[in-house]
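Narrative of activities, Objective 1.

The group set out to show that a structural description can be obtained from nothing but a protein's sequence at a throughput compatible with the screening campaign. Below is one input-output pair from the validation batch, recorded exactly as produced.
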Amino acid sequence: MQLPGYNLRNGLDQYHANGIWGQRWFSCVFMDDARLSWAGDRFHHREPMGVALRPYRPIMQGHGGILHLWGSEERRLRAKHALYKMTETLRWPNKSHAEIDKLYTLAFDPSLNRQFDQDWRYAPVPDGWWAHREHLKSTMPWQEWECGQLYREHGAARFAGLNLFGVCGHVMAEAG
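Output recorded for this entry:
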């Protein structure tokens, strides 16, 4: 089963309406099958591979679905993408740093891949989609701490060529 997916950006009140993060469908349920698996360097592949799955979409875009907090806070998004870059560098050492860097910098620079859009547009989250928000107030994203740990453990040279958005320097300075 797939539901409309809304990638929030710059707060809880708007989502990407176009581009790679707009008009998305998120799989939330599938029937188990021994042939299904996640393999290779498909870090963000939501659906398992191995058998062709038929999507069931019980509701249309704009009528509810899954609110993904992916980009709701810029600090957390930068830390998350820096951590993705570091993790892919460690998991797949033969993967090009330039390829990794481009993939996770796309979230901040749509010009890196023009096949998706010219400029991003946003749509407002309908009032009724949020009942209470106080529990969503943020603290230091855990991804920042993890980036600092990986940086200390593996050293700066291991991540050379990756734009880590200043996250590691920020965490190292806070750690003293």
